[in-house]
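Figure-free illustration: sequence to structure, shown twice.
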Amino acid sequence: MADSFTIWTSKSFRIAHAYSYRLPGYLFVENLVDARSLNSLSPEASGELGDALALAERLIHKIIHPERLYILKFGESDDRIHFHLIPRTRKLLDAYLATETDEPPYNGARITAWLWKNADQLGHSTEEIDAFVKTAKAEIAAS
């Protein structure tokens, strides 16, 4: 299923921009084969997962230039394995530190939890998300 958030699709995985978090470069790597664990993936799907994660990471670094990149595997709201790739930019860190007490090395889990509650406070627009998706697709087409 292609939509305005989808950036790349293989037989087993899709890279899409996050649907509900307004942070340019917040990507999902979603499985399309209903795998519930990594060991349930076929060798082909495992290879596609590696390709998808590497591509998503490359796109985020090339377009956003984050200070850090968090990659998280979940299975709570959707028990199929999927990954969140979250660019921890200076803007995100500054917004987090404006309301929370933390010191280097920063706690990525706490920053992520804060982001999920406060993403709209960062002030990113739909146009910025659309621009990221468009740039990412162009980057893939050019490579």
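We now fold a second protein in the same way, so the two outputs can be compared directly.
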Amino acid sequence: MLSGFFKRLLMARQLNFMEGDVSIFDIPQVMHPANHHFHLQQTITEKCGEAGKEAIYIAGKKSAEEISQILSEKFKVSGFESVNLWQNIIELSGTAKIVSMSPREGGNATVQAQSSIAKHILKTQGIQKDAREDHYLRGFLAGVFSKIYSKEIVCEETKCMSAGDTCCEFTLKPHSS
């Protein structure tokens, strides 16, 4: 069944599927199975260790910042009024199913999600002790909330489905210089 958001995008001609080209809001998209992202992240982490995790986080953050710029120019949506739009975009992309997004004053927020990476790990490897695995989503959320709050926000994954938690939980707060 198609989500209401997906249907609205199709009707407004903001979601286009043409041979060799998929775009949402005129932003080119690439559709891959979750295992592609898992293997890419796993390879970078194995080759580069903590620096690899940080690189994946930064890539997620830069992606969100770039998309945010396009959306704010196209739809004039920013700040807290953009939270529902971001939830729909994250879900439509297949990155995660958002359980809750709780932005609070001052730059703090909590996001609970069912990460596609964590689901893949659970399916293929079972529960992993002390796992906190979705560095891209963590970075993406940091980029989203940096734009929402108009200040530098950092994100930590505090719970993870692949560690046996009911959902992944991300804590966001202002970057302390």
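Summary for the second example: The first helix runs from residue 4 to 11.
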